[in-house]
Each structure stands twice: as C-alpha cells, then as structure tokens.
Amino acid sequence: MTTVESARIYARIALLRRRVLLQLALRRVLAGLIAAAAALVAAGFGTRVVYLALLPRLGELGATAAVGGGYLLIALIFGVLALREPASPELKALDLMEAEAKQKAVLAVNGLGMRADGLTRSVLTGLSLFNLLRRLLRRGD
Length: 141
Description:
It is a single chain. This protein is mainly alpha-helical and about 140 residues long. The protein is about 95% helix and about 0% strand. The longest helix has about 80 residues, at about 5-85. The protein is rod-shaped. It starts with a helix and ends with a helix.
C-alpha cells in the first residue's frame, strides 16, 4: 500500500467517523429540544393543577416549593440525559479503523522518509565522487 493510498484511506475513515459523530450529536440536540418544548407545555398545564392540589395541604409557600422542587428534579434528569455520551458499536468500530489507518499512514510516511534519506545520501555520495574525480583529472593536467 502506498503512502498516498494510506493517507486517502485514513482521511475517508476519519471523515466517516466524524459524520457519524455529527449525526449522533444532532439527534441528541433534537431530542433535547423536543423534550424541552414538551416539558414547557406540560409545565404550563401541570403547574396550575399541582399547585392547586397542594395549596390546601401545604399552604402557598409549601405548594410553591414543592412545584419548584419537581421542576428542578425534571431539569436534572434531562440534563444528565443530554450530556451522556452515546454508546455505539459503529462508533467504536470506526474509532478502531481510524487508529489502524492512521498507524499504517504513519508507517508509510516513515518508510518514504527513509527512502528519501537513502536517495539523498546516494546523490551526495555521487556528487562527492564526481568532485573527487574532477580534482584528480585537473591535477593530472
């Protein structure tokens, strides 16, 4: 496999992995937005019902604190869900493929560097020999 092929394969795998990550992030954001909108609508109707139900038992201050505590609990639950990282077998497989392709690309580039180093040495050796022969031929004149 050539260096260019290794780099191209690595780039394709890395791009595919990032597309999957973006799709998963967009799904989480969309789900969070829908959940928030539904919670707001439900909160509007439910707040009045819960408040009126608790008012005779807890009084105004107790009913207000109970409703606020319920909303805090809901916010914490949805916050944890929104921040949770997805567990996807495809994402894990793409991560492994990306690491392997990157390793192959790095090895190919290192091999290219060694070949270039050897070629440079050969050219410099040839030039040195050429200069040496030229000096020897000048002395002979």
